[in-house]
Amino acid sequence: MKGLFLSEQKAFWLERRTKMAKSKDEIKEVAQNKKARHDYFIEQTYEAGIVLSGTEVKSIRQGMVNLKDSYATIENGEVILNGMHISPYEQGNIFNKDPLRPRKLLLHRSEITRLIGYTQQKGLALVPLKVYFRGGLVKIELAVARGKKLYDKRADIAERDAKREIDRRMKEQLR
After folding, report:
1. Please, what sign has the CA dihedral across residues 166, 151, 46, 62?
2. Mean pLDDT, rounded, for 148-162
């Protein structure tokens, strides 16, 4: 940097700034809760940050996270994620945390009060849908969801099968 002219320095910093701006918008999905979309009607979604230790972030980068039976609760004005399994980092030794420990989610106060109102309604739950990286930070897509009945699940399966059959027939006719 010392031997560069002023215009070259400006160009360098401008290029670096645009690279950083692109990386902040980039989303890298790590894990998805497919069972949640099968078992619930998704009413509304929120993006939340999550409080993690360093070894947990490294495990998530390796894709060692499971959202299968996880859910969120609201305790003392804070949103807590329960049941999310993050496998211990292999090189983490003493810094590893309990894989199933409750983790605090980071949301704005207005979002938390809205979620409190939703969870007090009968039949609504807070379910995480996916974990992803946005700009180097771990984020969780949290959904306000209403449980499906067995006949709703059957109807979804029948609808999906019918759509698949229609697509198959259309493909045959185009040949």
Report:
1. negative
2. 84
> Is residue 8's pLDDT more than 80?
no
Lowest mean pLDDT among 13-17, 72-76, 77-81: 13-17
| Rounded mean pLDDT, 25-51 | 87
- How is the chain split into domains, by residue range? 27-147
Domain 27-147 matching CATH 2.40.280.10: the answer reads yes
Under DSSP, the state recorded for 4 is: S
